[in-house]
Amino acid sequence: MVVATILFSGASAASKWLVGIYPVGEVLCLRSFASLIAGGAMILPVSGLSAFVTHRPLDHLARGLSQSISQLCLLLAFSLMPLAGAVAINFSAPLFAALVSIIWLKEPAGFVRGGALVIGFVGVLIVTNPGTNSLTLGALFALTNAVMYGTVTVAVRGMTRTESANTLVMWQLAVLAFFHSFLLLFGWRSPSAIDAAMLFGTGFTNAIGQWFWTKALQFAPAPAVTPFYYLMLVWALMFGFFIWGDIPSASLLVGSAIVVMTGLFLFLREARLQRQLATR
Fold this sequence. Notes:
globular, mainly alpha
């Protein structure tokens, strides 16, 4: 899991570096195709084209479209604000997922869950610092990404009951590559050999990181593994400091701590409730 978080953070840092040189659409498109190649190389030799067999193609397309927009917003945020700030706001996605599940799926909120959401969103406000002329465009893109990611998480929750992990991954990668290819219409700049390696490398790195993440969940229960996911913020802070000289503000550190703690609390609480229901 620790290796996965380093790979994810490294890919995010590389993407932030690249969008400062190349069009965002180009970076996203090449990264998506690289992830598709890497994912196909790992999955298709085992499952073959049966990984694409599904009775829910429209659901996969809707999921992929939402995630393609979400990833676009995240890279736009990377281009407009410090890396750690964008990553910290992205960690609010579970809060939005919990909120959507209460509003959309009519799940009971309860005092504890509702209180944790309120505290978590206070942390988001501290990170984004929405005072006069201070809520930046980058923060808005990061928030949009978090909202969409959290919403998609809830919307596709039922897909895991009918779709295999290989089917979910291959459809996601294929649809992302398809939609992101249209972004090339908005600009292209021929990369140097080194930059081309970095552009494709971000996709390969993400795919390998996802493999490590999946393996971690196979070897240990999710409640024991998921807390390590928040190490991404530590690596993002380090990358931001050593590459761009970003010094984290007090509001970023305090707000991030609140978001991380409430996100962990909600996850561990839901895991405990599910175990209790399973034992009844």
